[in-house]
Amino acid sequence: RSTPRRFASRDVTQKIGILGVxxxxxxxxxxxxxxxxxxRGAGLVEALRSLGHDxxxxxxxxxxxxPDLVGPENMDKYQHVAVCMREVSSLARRIxxxxxxxxxxxxxxxxxxxxxxxTVNAHEDVAVIWVDAHADLNTPATSPSGSAHGMPVAxxxxxxADYWPYLPGMDWQVPKLPLSNLAYIGLRSVDExxxxxxxxxxxxxxxxxxxxxxxxxxxxELALRHVDPYKRRAIHLSFDIDALDALEAxxxxxxxxxxxxxxxxxxxxxxxxxxxxxxxxxxVRGGLTLREGIHIMEKxxxxxxxxxxxxxxxxxxxxxxxDVSTTLQAALQLLxxxxxxxxxxxxxxxxxxPLTKGATLSAKGAKGKDV
Length: 371
Ligand SMILES: NC(=[NH2+])NCCC[C@H](N)C(=O)O
Prior knowledge:
Elements: E1 15-21, H1 35-41, H2 44-50, E2 54-60, H3 78-97, E3 101-106, H4 112-122, E4 126-131, H5 152-156, E5 182-187, H6 192-200, E6 204-207, H7 208-227, E7 234-240, H8 259-264, H9 290-303, E8 306-312, H10 321-338, H11 363-366
Parallel strand pairs: 1-2, 1-3, 3-8, 4-5, 4-7, 5-6, 7-8
Helix pairs in contact: 3-4, 7-9, 9-10
Bound molecules: arginine (ARG).
């Protein structure tokens, strides 16, 4: 049974609020703070408006003073995280309270400490789809790097609250997200303790092997069914550009394991192997294709329950000019897909199609009356 494709999106105006979060202190590479500017510069606002949406750009989050907070051991730049994410959360809440879908541009993935916090406060029942090469499920006690961008999920999860020490300056943040409302897609670099946590709490995760065996269609269907079985939750979609293969999005910086190489070496998937850090960082090979990423976005859009999107870890300082442009185009395509781009390009609406010379099919005409 074949049903005609629906192009509903062109007729449904969505209210979108863009929030830039040029935050880079959740990891060690320079340049990820230029992400929001670069994605805007690639034409994001214009592209979303051309879909007919009501787009308001709320600019970039800034914070000036960093108080002398003593954070947990092995959580780098804790003070910055605590202060900046409070600001992110309050702005993202404001955007959502105006009835807008909050589109946050990172920055590194620690920005979700603020954005997801806003979503779980703006809605009663929230589902999170986390598209990423990494699980970002470490606590300071388990983190191999001390980088906050590897910790947001652990910080947001209600089930993991007891695994954290008291966090001074973060009283605004209440871990509210049940891990049962979360699904990962695209994992290929999971640390040992993250894996243990995933097993212990039975977290729904589709790694690259699963995407391979189920296909992206099956993967997204199962992920959505898991996080939102009764089709009533607000959906927060957090997309780390490093979920895409390095060929599709080279300008991103997290050192990680090379899945293919590890398998060849007969190593366990959870034994993490790092590339050289800093300027030599490279994206993780063996990831999602851009088409697969777009499919995820389209399917979440089709639910009609998208509340917030993050697009993070685009680093315009990494790679050649061509790498940067490839990465930015990928980011842009993902985002227009999340907001209902037409799969076949900008097709005219049926009513706009000229039937005979000079005549167009009006709504009335479509019912067979005089045109
Ligand atoms: N959002 C990211 N790129 N996260 C990378 C995390 C890498 C590693 N698992 C860590 O915790 O340090």
